[in-house]
Amino acid sequence: MSCNANSSEHASSHDDDLNLEFDEEENIEPCLAMDEVNQCSISNWYYLYDGKTNPQITPKRITILTKIIKLEDDFIEYLKQDGVVLPASVDTKKVVPNFESDSDEEREKYANSDEQDEENEVPEFTALQLQIADALDEFEEVFPKLNWSAPKDANWMLSESSLLRCKSIEDVFLVLKSSSFVTHDIQKAYNNCLDYKPENEIKRVLALRKWYDVNPSMEFRCFVKDRSLIGISQRDISNFYKFLVVDRESITEKLVTFWEKYIKNSFPLSQYTVDLYISRTGAVFIVDFNVFGPPTSPLLFNSFKSGHLSSDSKELVVNIVENNEGVMRPSCKMYSGVPSDFFSVENAQNLQEFIEKQQKLQQNEK
């Protein structure tokens, strides 16, 4: 085993790749099989490790408690539509247009369409809302995601500063409708597949995970190739944690032991990445699985196409941020997806304050 640190040179060369998952995906040469994408869907792997469905793998749950809801076609179509119009039975006061690709004419049309909006049909998803309500009753707070991606880019829409801490049905709908990551799961999940066939796509799901206050310093991405664990990277590459340098060997041993015991012989793919979390009690949990290659981020490894991840070596390499000079600073999009204009509004603690301040500014300009 070798334990490597990233350097400042490494950071600068890799920083542009941090948004690879969506910004540059159209330029990626297809290299995956549809089965790889499908097996990394939470609707497939969760039941291997929930402690109930496959007790021969593990008699205890070793992943985050989750409710998985199959999504109907009408809801998928709703998610594809521009704008953020919430269902009639939840609070529809927060209606935020999506002008990312709109022309000036479309913006003006929206600004003058209050009366027309009242006549538009408001969506209704009673069965889904009841299922979300049941999950909230059981978990109190949930972290939503689709098959592969969580709407982290829409976190700024919530009043909570904690990552995707949804306390209501409105919160869940709001982040799902505001997220480019969710749109990616619906429309581009198979873009990188060599053997794409529409009939082999799997059903889209909404996974509502019990929300926990997770310590980002203790989440790690493990890289598996030819059924060998060849790489481990610190997940939060934007911070230096001194204790990781001190405890690197013991942390590595804990992660390797967990992978060998629970994942190595149970996960169906020969190459993949898996995010693991070490809790405050020292227990290890599975957070997520992803494909081995784009659009998954290699984090502190340079690339899937060069360096250790592309070699035939089965030696385990562990990369962590060794010092403050090695910190990699993701763009604000990686943090929250909030528009840059939001950061210019002082003391705007949440979306409502932001909206109120903008309204006052507009009134003063009149």
TrEMBL record:
Instruction: Note down the stretches annotated as region Disordered.
Output: 96-122
The terms describing its cellular component in GO are: cytoplasm
Pfam families listed in its UniProt record: D123 (PF07065)
Q: What's the family? A: Belongs to the CDC123 family.
What the entry lists under PANTHER family is as follows: CELL DIVISION CYCLE PROTEIN 123 HOMOLOG, D123 PROTEIN
Q: What is this protein called?
A: Cell division cycle protein 123 homolog
- The scientific name of the source species is Naegleria fowleri
